[in-house]
Amino acid sequence: MITKIIVLAIYVSILFLIGIFASRRINSMSDYYLGGKKMGFWAVAFSARATGESGWLLIGLTGMGAMAGYSAYWVVLGELLGVFLSWQFMAKRFKTRSDTYKSITIPDYLQSHFKSSTNTLRIISAATLVVFVVIYVASQMDVTGIAFESMLNIDYRIGALIGFVIVLIYIFIGGFVAAVWSDMFQGILMFFGLVLLPIVVWFSMDHGAGISEGLNAIDPTLTQIMGRSDDGLMNLFTILGFSMIGLGFLGSPQVYVRFMSIKSEKEIDKGKWIALIFTLLTDAAAVTIGILARIYFTSEGQDPEVVLGNGGENVLSMITNEFLPSILVAIFIAIVLSAIMSTIDSLLVLASSAITRDFYQKIFRPDLKDEDLTSFSRLVTVIMAVIALCIAILLYNLYPERKIFWIMIFGWSGIAATFCPVIILSLFWKGYSEKGAIASMITGFVSVIFFKFVVSNMEGIGAYFIELDVLAPSFLLAMIVGYIVSKIAPPKHIEKST
Fold first, then answer.
1. Phi, psi angle pair for 262, to nearest 5°
2. What is the pLDDT of residues 113-133, one digit of tens each?
3. Measuring CA to CA, which of 73, 77, 133, 403 is 20 to 30 A from 468?
4. Is-contact 290 311, C-beta < 8 A?
């Protein structure tokens, strides 16, 4: 226990030092929220991936590998494709336009792109951003509590509070720069920890005839890459649900703010390969860890959730404690916290920017200059963090049987379905109008809630949409509605191609 605490103390000290050094670059709101648009490709690539992956990579995806077996690798394929499309075809366009508009936030970009004469689009985009970001941050804080409880035997609520305090201090001090620099440090930890762990476990296990044989001995459906059900349509929906998670990389604000912050378009080409390698190796490793845990800890006829926790949330804790010495277990605790905090810090800065820039400054106090809002930005960040922590504790008390993977995906899907269709259409279609964008955002926002709480409970089709989850249908509806409304109410001014 002492070893674990010492390692964690070193880890936290590094984060605080990052915050202190980053604070020296904070002279205005642009610095606090975008690092003055001077970030390098290494930092942006690692930060974008660490932020995009979050705690669900280590807690959620490892558990998914244990529960689903080989079919969980569809998540890896979907994420890899999403990251590739985002960096290859969208990042440069978005960087060029956001620089031209001198945007600091995503609502800034949308307001300028559509040459909006009202604040309607800004208000809707900022409001929806705050709602789903707070939900997503709450799910990350929830995972923080679970990680402390399962890996350090510290009470869930105390663990969540410790994580809350740690991330809030360095973000409060250093803003976006601290978030990106700490994400890079944490992303490196995540990368090497995840890639090396399944190798160590495999060679330490009495693995017998092999992975497929081990899974078949427990449950033959675990080796079916095309899904575990006898219903072909159910398998199709399951595969789509797993692979469509990658849609969230095609415009999610927490990722695209990184493209705003990068120094130049040339840096994007370099960062692309880092992001792709990171995604492929870490995601595949996470699923593999879950599969190895299923073979090692469970046997035929056992309920895996009884052994491995709800949704397999205890997989990483169990496998590190079983196969690694105390010092490496302590490092893995730091890695888990890295995955969680790399997302919390970015999302808190994002939500804070929406309130400070898009509500307070642009609507109520346009007379204030950016440099006058730095202190207010920090205050808003604290308030957002407190609200998210309260929601996390509420989730813990009201839904003890909750599955971490899908709570995170709900928050992720809400952000993605609201913003990704708008970003895609704004970058590639000149006929996309402001009214079309508003319609897309409202449709995406409402559809996520509708599919989650209404369609999934419908008799007959509900089971299929539980497997498909909310992102893909909500994303598609938002695209379609945006197209139809833009045709009915086309833009007055069509921006020249950049």
1. -70, 150
2. 998 888 888 888 888 888 877
3. 133
4. no
